[in-house]
């Protein structure tokens, strides 16, 4: 219990500006991040595990309708909330993930149950919700996740027939290093507005949107999932740290630059096993926050807030 701890969280990257969020949206975003940061920090401060801390932080953001995860998730083309989540323990590289969940209130905790069960890594759809029931996780009616603003965004996209590339993303994630030197990562999302045909993004794919390895770093991504999958983004960051000896935050910057070169927009948060932490993004903004033992927590949204 001699080491420092670090927690970094995100609430999605996108085109948020002071003008389009307004004072209320800005305040709500910061309040959500502050609550999630404190939920995770309380665990790490007490010597708890990085795995518990990232799950706790993400659960707070899943419950907060201002973010695209759990309640407040975006709608698929068919008007359904299909939720994805993943969690990974850097100590053992055990991982759990779920995709297309529609009735489990806390998708990140379902991912954690998949990890704890250990037989599989990735469960989908009705099977994943069925596993949640056997694991005793709270079930809700599918419309519990639905909020009017997300319905409006779907209607707008369907009316225009196209995809709004400047949309706010709003996926949530957390990465942590605990006092014992272990790292963990978790990510949760509703995916992309108007997604079709059972589309799965990077979030629940281990190595794409989520990865953790004590030998390197913990990573959680947000943005254009298809490009993060093609770049194997989260694992690529970990590999640059482990094999290339890069600092986690530098590796994050390199991989986000590569994502940009492939035409992708988004961001990532990282914690190195050395306790360093930070982020990189190529969008105008990313909801983000960092807390470290002994430091004042920092919360930011816009790109000019460094
Ligand atoms: N990366 C997520 C996905 O593609 C979306 C997001 O970050 O909001 O599903």
Describe the overall structure:
The chain has 306 residues and is α+β, with helices and mostly antiparallel strands. Helices cover 35% and strands 25% of the residues. The chain has eight helices and twelve strands. It has helices spanning 18-45, 50-63, 107-117, 125-134, 148-160, 225-230, 233-242, 248-261; strands spanning 6-14, 83-89, 94-101, 122-124, 172-177, 183-189, 210-213, 217-223, 266-272, 277-281, 285-292, 298-302. The strands form two sheets. The protein has an eight-stranded mixed sheet with strand order 4-3-2-6-5-1-11-12. Strand 9 (266-272) and strand 10 (277-281) form a beta hairpin. The radius of gyration is 17 Å and the shape is globular. The chain starts with 5 loop residues before the first strand and ends with a strand. Bound molecules: aspartic acid. Aspartic acid is lined by residues 12, 68, 169-171, 189, 191-192, 201-203, 209, 222-223, 225.
């Amino acid at each position: 219990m001699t080491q420092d701890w670090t927690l970094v969280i995100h609430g999605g990257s996108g085109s948020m500006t002071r003008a389009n969020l307004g004072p209320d949206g800005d305040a709500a975003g910061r309040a959500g991040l502050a609550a999630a940061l404190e939920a995770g920090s309380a665990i790490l401060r007490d010597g708890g595990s990085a795995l518990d801390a990232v799950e706790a932080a993400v659960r707070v953001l899943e419950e907060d309708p201002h973010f695209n995860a759990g309640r407040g998730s975006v709608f698929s083309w068919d008007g359904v909330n299909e939720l994805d989540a993943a969690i990974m323990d850097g100590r053992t590289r055990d991982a759990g993930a779920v995709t297309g969940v529609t009735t489990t209130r806390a998708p990140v905790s379902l991912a954690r149950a998949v990890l704890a069960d250990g037989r599989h890594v990735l469960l989908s759809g009705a099977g994943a919700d069925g596993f949640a029931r056997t694991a005793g996780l709270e079930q809700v009616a599918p419309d519990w996740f639905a909020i009017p603003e997300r319905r409006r965004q779907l209607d707008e996209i369907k009316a225009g027939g196209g995809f709004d590339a400047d949309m706010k993303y709003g996926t949530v994630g957390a990465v942590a290093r605990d006092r014992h030197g272990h790292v963990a990562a978790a990510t949760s999302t509703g995916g992309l507005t108007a997604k079709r045909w059972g589309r799965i993004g990077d979030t629940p794919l281990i190595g794409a949107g989520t990865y953790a390895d004590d030998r390197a770093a913990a990573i959680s991504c947000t943005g254009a999932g298809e490009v993060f999958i093609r770049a194997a983004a989260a694992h690529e960051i970990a590999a640059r740290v482990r094999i290339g000896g890069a600092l986690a935050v530098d590796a994050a910057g390199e991989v986000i630059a590569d994502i940009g070169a492939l035409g992708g927009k988004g961001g990532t948060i990282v914690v190195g096993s050395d306790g360093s932490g930070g982020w990189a993004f190529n969008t105008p903004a990313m909801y983000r926050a960092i807390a470290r033992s002994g430091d004042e927590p920092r919360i930011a949204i816009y790109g000019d807030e460094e």
